[in-house]
Amino acid sequence: MGSGCRGAPAGGSGELAGSQVEKVGGLQNKAGPAWPRLRLTHVLDSPAARTAKVESHPPAGTMDVFNRNIDLKALFKFSHISVSTQQHLKKVYASFALCMFVAAAGAYVNVVTHVLRLNMLTGLGSLGLMIWLMATPHSRETEQKRLGMLAGFAFLTGANLGPLLEMCIAINPSIVPTAFLGTAVIFSCFSLSALFAKRRSFLYLGGFLLSGLFLMLLFSLVNIFVGSTWLFTANLYLGLMVMCGFVLFDTQLIIEKAESGDKDYIWHCVDLFLDFINLFRQLMMLLGMNENKKKKEK
């Protein structure tokens, strides 16, 4: 009985297996031979096919990167600077642009018309106007007067560059526009770096920059008696680095003064204008020396 009971399921499973084989065989006969399907599956699962699938359907994150809208206005948003200080900086840079135009006019008058040939008088005149501007308090009543002083100071400062401009033009006329473009790029980069950087992050440079100015003065006094070309060139490169540092320092110092309530944008403009002029002078002298050296070697 036990063997009969065990034999019945065995027979049933045999019949079930046979029917499954017949069904599979019928499906295979309807679909054709099995080996082409195996080869097709192998091709679809190959690395090349998987790569093609990935390329044709890139990940959603990749699509988000390329479809992302770029807000250019965010580049000029300074969240760490208050709105009033940002308005103050606009006035400072607007006055700075005015100074650049007036200084260019002064340089043109001195180089082309030769009206202001006395370099000593133009230097003393610009120094006197700067002292007068500094001594005049900033207020709404004196604003127009101080803007006139600023324009006169910028004009005489540009005229004071006349002899150096004439020397560089005599060596190679392309020195002047090259030096101006280089100065504009350097000034813009360092000024933007100071604006985007964390507040007070460059104010520690003040002591180093004053030491650099003292070292430049010492080199100049020593070179009067030594007359070394190498020392003069080293002093020019040192001055270029010091002026770049002053752009960083003065820009952040203007921000801190404005945050503390000092809104004298005219005097703050003088700081940046002097940084630009000194950078331009140092770079123009370096380019003139290098060009003159190349001519002597030829």
From TrEMBL:
<keyword id="KW-0053">Apoptosis</keyword>
<feature type="transmembrane region" description="Helical">
    <location>
        <begin position="202"/>
        <end position="224"/>
    </location>
</feature>
<dbReference type="InterPro" id="IPR006214">
    <property type="entry name" value="Bax_inhibitor_1-related"/>
</dbReference>
<protein>
    <recommendedName>
        <fullName>Transmembrane BAX inhibitor motif-containing protein 6</fullName>
    </recommendedName>
</protein>
<comment type="similarity">
    <text>Belongs to the BI1 family.</text>
</comment>
<dbReference type="GO" id="GO:0031966">
    <property type="term" value="C:mitochondrial membrane"/>
</dbReference>
<dbReference type="GO" id="GO:0006915">
    <property type="term" value="P:apoptotic process"/>
</dbReference>
<feature type="transmembrane region" description="Helical">
    <location>
        <begin position="171"/>
        <end position="195"/>
    </location>
</feature>
<feature type="transmembrane region" description="Helical">
    <location>
        <begin position="147"/>
        <end position="165"/>
    </location>
</feature>
<feature type="transmembrane region" description="Helical">
    <location>
        <begin position="230"/>
        <end position="249"/>
    </location>
</feature>
<dbReference type="Pfam" id="PF01027">
    <property type="entry name" value="Bax1-I"/>
</dbReference>
<dbReference type="GO" id="GO:0019899">
    <property type="term" value="F:enzyme binding"/>
</dbReference>
<dbReference type="GO" id="GO:0034620">
    <property type="term" value="P:cellular response to unfolded protein"/>
</dbReference>
<keyword id="KW-0472">Membrane</keyword>
<keyword id="KW-0812">Transmembrane</keyword>
<dbReference type="GO" id="GO:0033119">
    <property type="term" value="P:negative regulation of RNA splicing"/>
</dbReference>
<feature type="transmembrane region" description="Helical">
    <location>
        <begin position="115"/>
        <end position="135"/>
    </location>
</feature>
<keyword id="KW-1133">Transmembrane helix</keyword>
<dbReference type="InterPro" id="IPR006213">
    <property type="entry name" value="Bax_inhbtr1_CS"/>
</dbReference>
<dbReference type="GO" id="GO:2001234">
    <property type="term" value="P:negative regulation of apoptotic signaling pathway"/>
</dbReference>
<feature type="transmembrane region" description="Helical">
    <location>
        <begin position="92"/>
        <end position="109"/>
    </location>
</feature>
